[in-house]
Amino acid sequence: CSIIPAAIIVFITMLSSDRVVQWHKSHYGLKGSRTIRDFGVAPRWSRYLMSSTQFHATVHCLLTSDRLSVQIAALTVVQLAAFGMTLRRKRIISPMEGVFLYSLVLGMGMLVIIDDILRRSFFHLAICLGNATAVLRMNLGMNKYFIWG
To answer: Which sign, positive or negative, has the C-alpha torsion 131, 137, 142, 145?
Structure first.
């Protein structure tokens, strides 16, 4: 399995995300970052952990892309997170319940990823790369295009 298609998808996703953020800033005047780490509802350590799972998911996407269960888990995480945001926006659930739901969804996705990397026998490599990319971006502020390039 080639890393090129997965890398292209990662870069298209980052570019698309940047474009959407830019559009929202120009149309709605949003200022600053809107990541999970910027919301004060959950404890700081848990916001950091939730953010780091996204780096692990990206590393996993780059290392593997041939198991349908992993792709379905990723899709489920995205869809349930969006559903949780909708419930939060409509005030059906509280901010803390939204964070709890998001944590549960991320945890489910990480269980599928961990199962996959254990079966492939590169658990330590994948965890090390995921942690390194999270530290480079979140602690050192390194450019995301540089990290994934």
So the answer is: positive
